[in-house]
Amino acid sequence: MTATGDIHPRETIICTIARLLEGCGNVAVGAASPMPGSAALLARALSDGGTRVTLLGSRRHNYFTDGGRELFDCAGQGRVDAFFLSGAQIDGQANINLSYIGDPGHPKARFPGAFGSAYLYFVVPRVILFREEHTRRVFVDRVDYISAPGTSEPGIYRPGGPHALVTGLCAMRFDRARGRFRLESVHPGHTLEEVRDNTGFDFDVPDRVPETPLPGPDMLATLRGRVAGEVAETYPRFAEALFGSAPQPNRITA
Amino acid sequence: MTDFEDLDGLAGRIAAGSRLALPPDYGGVSIAATARMIARRVRDLHLVALPSTGLQTDMLIAAGAVASVESAAVTLGEAGLAPCFTKAVKAGTIAVKDATCPALHAGFQAAEKGVPFMPIRGIIGSDILAYRPDWRVIDNPFSKTEDPIVVVPAIAPDVTLFHCPRADRFGNVWIGRRRELVSLAHASRTTLVTVEEIVDGDLLETEASAAGVLPSLYVSAIAVAPGGARPLGLQDLYAPEPEAVADWVRHAEAGDLDGAFRAVGARMPELEAL
């Protein structure tokens, strides 16, 4: 925490993700995604009205009126610019596993499941992979089960796909033509060696690896002010842990 | 004609062996009727979620009522994995048909339209497709070049069950913007609804209220169950109770099903006999 002062590492990660959303007109965030949700709300706050955000699981930050299918219909038409996915396992080809460890018939572990990933990964242009835990348990050479594939054969309809990967240690970009990740920056307080030691797949590394920039004062103030209150509506426990006594929006009451 | 029933009578309409369609945990789940189903010892259910499920499915699995689950995900949200589902999958005591949300929406939409299947983008190259012999990849018949696309069969469940804020005496049900409930009702042969209250008047009378209505044409039976979605939430009427769901997890993981049921069923005394 020496160089970072009182900036929480999670605040740096949220701001890193928000920068990846610059220029997006319509961002959707899935359920149980407090960090991507915070980043999307931050990108909206900084967009001067240019970015719409839909948080699944939120009533207030939700522009949809046609039920659960609307997100998918909307995305299928190319109307969703960015979405977030994660994985119990993520491999070097950006395949994600949200389903099983071991044989699906007799699994060692079962996770919630694919949700909409097997579809949205194909049709949303800028899919950002996020997983805070950066270990070899998560970042494997080959996933046990492909809930959604990172790349597709030529001839498969696929306007969308993986754009970037943000973890607790670093940010990477995905090169769709080569089917490989390239290290973009390492978060303050961490090293390239740490990233290598904790990544089970091979990735490209530039000659000089930059440090992930810390949020500037304006960005940080927006995050801790307006965005903290908005996040608290959907993720009250997360918001309180990170931002402390954030301004409370009107809670739903009986 | 829509029938008006008590909760037990409504739950009794779900026969053993039924294919039962369910809304997601945020969409209006009838926990009250689920508790009655469990008390009635219903068995051998084939659950299909539109598009995901959580506490309700975990309760039914805990009670030994489930033969199979078709869903895009089974999760208790911030409370984590559904413990009884996870245990049953590892032990192989229930069959799982993994899906992805839009494929389930497409299957229900096919049933709504009365057509046998629906095409859906994506999915190709996933292990979900590899484990779904009932899904096919066809060549887009309207494309000049080769264009493989997945088709999924229509999903026409025997029965669906969900909870809504209100109904009128004609059997019209207010669903607001939870439009997946419309898909569930259109696609299912029988639609069972629990509501917070029955209101006077006709919900179809004004355009403003009619826009959020599932008309009685699709509604088989209604029972009144105030707080019927608790400890899950209901639209803008009440918020979910994450502590209760976390208690369900804690007790169920410790093998204390009696405690688990009580954690989510303080308002469901019949479960205490389990």
Our count of helices of chain B gives 10
Fourth-level CATH superfamily of the largest domain in chain B: Glutaconate Coenzyme A-transferase
What is the number of helical segments of chain A per DSSP (H or I, 4+ residues)?
7
Mean pLDDT of chain A: 92
Helix and strand element order of chain A: HEHEHEEEEEHEEEEEHHH
Please identify the oligomeric state: heterodimer
Main sheet characteristics of chain B: 10 strands, mixed
Q: What global shape of chain B is seen?
A: globular
Helicity of chain B, as a percent range? 25-40%
Name the strands of the widest sheet of chain A in spatial order: 3-8-10-11-12
The SSE string of chain B, one letter per element, is EHEHEHEHEHEHEEEEHEHEEHH
CATH topology of the largest domain in chain B: Glutaconate Coenzyme A-transferase
Structural class of chain B: alpha/beta
| Helix amount of chain A | 25-40%
- At CATH's second level, what is the architecture of the largest domain in chain B? 3-Layer(aba) Sandwich
Stated plainly, the CATH topology of chain A is called Glutaconate Coenzyme A-transferase
pLDDT averaged residue by residue of chain B = 95
Work out the strand percent of chain A: 15-25%
C-alpha Rg of chain A (nearest Å): 18 Å
Describe this structure in words.
By secondary structure, chain A is of the alpha/beta class. Chain A has helices at residues 9-20, 34-45, 69-76, 117-123, 192-197, 217-234, 236-243; strands at residues 26-29, 52-55, 82-85, 89-91, 96-97, 100-101, 109-110, 126-131, 139-140, 162-167, 170-175, 180-186. Chain A has a single domain, classed as Glutaconate Coenzyme A-transferase (3-Layer(aba) Sandwich). Chain A contains seven helices and twelve strands. In chain A, strand 11 (170-175) and strand 12 form a beta hairpin. Chain A starts with 8 loop residues before the first helix and ends in an 11-residue tail after the last helix. Chain B has 274 residues and is an alpha/beta fold. Chain B folds into two domains: 3-99 and 156-264, Glutaconate Coenzyme A-transferase (3-Layer(aba) Sandwich), CATH 3.40.1080; 117-153, no CATH class. Chain B has helices spanning 7-11, 31-39, 55-62, 83-91, 101-113, 127-130, 180-187, 207-210, 242-253, 257-264, and strands spanning 3-5, 19-22, 45-49, 66-71, 95-98, 117-120, 136-139, 148-153, 159-168, 173-174, 190-199, 213-214, 221-224. In chain B, strands 1, 2, 3, 4, 5, 9, 10, 11, 12 and 13 form a ten-stranded mixed beta sheet that branches. In chain B, helix 4 (83-91) links the parallel strand 4 and strand 5. In chain B, helix 3 (55-62) packs across helix 4 and helix 9 (242-253) runs antiparallel to helix 10 (257-264). Chain B is globular. Chains A and B meet through helix 3, strand 7 and helix 4 of A and helix 4, helix 5, helix 6 and helix 7 of B.
